[in-house]
Amino acid sequence: MSFEEFRQVIADISKVPLEKIHKDASFRDELDVDSLQMVNLIVELTARFNLGSFNLQSDKDLETVGALYQLMTMEES
Amino acid sequence: MNNFYDWIFDQEHDLNKEILSTQRGNFSYRDIQQGVEKYVQLFETLGDIKGKRIALIVPSVYDFTSLALAISKLQGITVPLSPLLRHEDLISVLDFVSPHIVFTVTEHNGFQLWETINQWAASNLKETIILENKADMKWNQTIHIGEKNPLEEGQIQIIGCTSGSTGTPKGIVYDVDFVQRVGKGINIGLDIVDNDKLFLLAPATGVFGLAWILSTMQSKTHLVLSENFNFPEIIQLFESHASQKFITTPSLFKAMDLFGKSLGKQVLNQVSLLSVFGELVTKEFLQTYSDFPAKIMSFLGITEFGTVMYTENDIRNDMNWTLLPNIKYKFDSLSEEGIGELIYQSERPFLGYYQRPDLTSEVYKDGWFFSGDLGRTNDDGKIELVGRKKDMIKKGGQQVIPGEIENVLEKHPDVLRVVVVGIPHPVFGEQIIAFVQKNRSDLHRQELYEYCNLRIARYKIPDQIRFIEEFPMVQGKIDKVALRKKATEQE
User: Fold this and answer.
1) What is the rounded CA–CA span in Å between residue B175 and residue B152?
2) Residue range B19-68, pLDDT digits in tens
3) Per-residue pLDDT reduced to its tens digit, A22-43
4) Would B400 disulfide with which of B12, B336, B393, B425, CB 3.0-4.6 Å?
5) B86: nearest CA in chain A?
6) Contact A43 B258 (CB under 8 A)
7) CB atoms closer than 10 angstroms to residue B92
8) Residues of chain A neighbouring B232 (CB-CB closer than 8 A)
9) Which segments does the entry list as coiled coil (chain B) (predicted)?
10) What is the homologous superfamily of the domain B1-391 according to CATH?
């Protein structure tokens, strides 16, 4: 999954404009994704990318678009 | 009993018994009483609160509970508001309910709640007191001077606000009876025994969360609940309490499972009973958890009316509903096929929508509450739900229930999930579109048409079957509005 595809999926699920979604964008502060939406987003992403689990180390893995992309793609390879 | 405090504390309790746990700690009956006393003293400095609407945007479950009990004891009205509200929806709810007093945290998830509420109060021209909490639950007071705000009369305990399907807020009025009904549902449906410890994963500081907190406290059942949706924290809380009964929505349960696995923990092994509610339980969910080694059951609650039914059997075997004691039901406008709208009656009346008698009279007639759910009685004499009245498709003079077609198509072995919607048709009024997610790539529409042909009346067979890879989602649920739009655009 390329980062471009990942951005598009986040835009589709969270209804955030695509142009706001970049690697350093904070889900909470810039994209205004609240904690419950974030949970739905992660569940939906793992279903779409067919991931049984991911290797979560800390909350920082869920803070920005880039960190979440890394978390989801590490498990894929 | 006309207030929550007496309902809980007029019976004997071991005051040292821990009854409520969150990430902030474990709280006994004595801790709760002390919390209530602290807020009663605070209210005494603000004057008589009888009949006053007091909005709470308080994520700390302990303070939220203590405040709600203190308000009820002093005959005020609790208006729980979600800390997830943002500028527009927060202002419209405040305009609608016009609280006399607001308790709020300064900010939540980066949004400045106090600032927004303070600006609202300054322009509202009514007397409003705002209590802001920066840290440690010490409250800073701001008083906005203005016109006197009218008081409520009667037995109202809670006003629950929703944004409403049209974006206009709607308030639902509750009394002690509503919470008693929720409690009855918990005790019977979850087969509560002494020293049970329930884990509830759902928004904790809304009407639903409050009803669970108060009713478990009344029945001496230890409730563990999370104050946020931070899953590593939730899993830690869950592990430290070894709760055997777990109550949540299907999507939050999936999240719990996913995060547990991702953290390398088998946390769900301790569960002996899983209760899922609040969302449609899909075939996909039941398939995913077909081997989950605990009973899975469900509740049916109506926002306006409280819990009405529960499932006695494991829902992986059948989804038949049993009515709670003291709830009566019947079917309105029964069709030839025995399907009608479920309407309910309880010993106490529905108190109605806040300041909207017009809306109340639409759903509450002659003591019966019209749920909008369509159902029938099956061969075992149990109630089976088949869909929502508002989703009913009216095609060429016939009424078609999407849920009925979805259930038939989802029984096909190569079909994962189906959503049926109605879109306008120039001749028949509406036509039926079935969106199908398949799990066999060479499955053809014709096979599904034939499958339907053998099982349902011809007028119910979808006019179009469209395959879809992913359903559009909104807030964890399938976005039917987007599906209808998609179907209409493709015409």
Assistant:
1) 13
2) 999 999 999 999 999 999 999 999 999 999 999 999 999 999 999 999 99
3) 999 999 888 888 888 888 888 8
4) B393
5) A32
6) yes
7) 17
8) 56, 58-59
9) none
10) ANL, N-terminal domain (3.40.50.12780)
Long-range CB contact pairs, B34-39, < 8 A, 24+: B35/B62, B35/B63, B35/B65, B35/B66, B35/B69, B35/B70, B36/B5, B36/B66, B36/B69, B36/B70, B36/B73, B38/B66, B39/B66, B39/B67, B39/B70, B39/B71
Question: What does the block give as tokens for B164?
Answer: 């409403």
Distances from the Cα of B238 to the Cαs of B22, B30, B225, B244, B460, in angstroms?
A: 10, 23, 9, 10, 46
Q: Locate A75 and state its tokens.
A: 């498990």
Helices (H) then strands (E): counts for chain A: 3, 0
Inter-chain touch B262–A15, beta carbons under 8 Å: no
Which of the following CATH numbers is that of domain A3-76: 1.10.1200.10, 6.10.140.1670, 3.40.50.2300, 3.40.800.20? Answer: 1.10.1200.10
Q: Cα(B317)–Cα(B313) distance, rounded to whole angstroms?
A: 7
Sequence ranges of chain B with CATH classification 3.40.50.12780: 1-391
Identify from B473, B483, B486 which residue to disrupt to test chain A contact, counting A C-beta atoms within 10 A and taking the largest count: B473
Please tell me which residue of chain A has the smallest CA distance to B87.
A32
Nearest residue of B to residue A51 by CA position? B258
**What is the complex's ipTM, to 2 decimals?**
0.84
**Do B434 and B447 contact (CB within 8 A), yes or no?**
no
B440-475 pLDDT, tens digit each: 999 999 999 999 988 888 888 999 999 999 888 876
Name the residue ranges covered by the structural domains of chain A: 3-76
CB contact under 8 A, B473 and A54: no
Contacts of A44 in chain B (CB under 8 A): 473, 476
Structure tokens at B115: 């600032």
Identify whether the C-beta of residue B188 lies closer than 8 Å to the C-beta of residue B13. Answer: no
- B392-489: CATH class: alpha beta
- B341 contacts B332 by C-beta, under 8 angstroms: yes
The proportion of chain B whose per-residue pLDDT surpasses 90, expressed as a percent, equals 64
> Which residues are CB-neighbours of B179 under 8 A, at least 6 positions away?
B4, B7, B157, B210, B211, B214, B215, B306
Distance CA B306, CA B185 (A): 9
Cβ neighbors of B115 (< 8 A, separation 6 or more) are none
User: If you count residue pairs, one on A and one on B, with CB atoms under 8 Å apart, how many are there?
Assistant: 57
Distance from CA of A16 to the nearest CA of B (A): 12
Decide: B118 and B102 in contact? Cβ < 8 Å: no
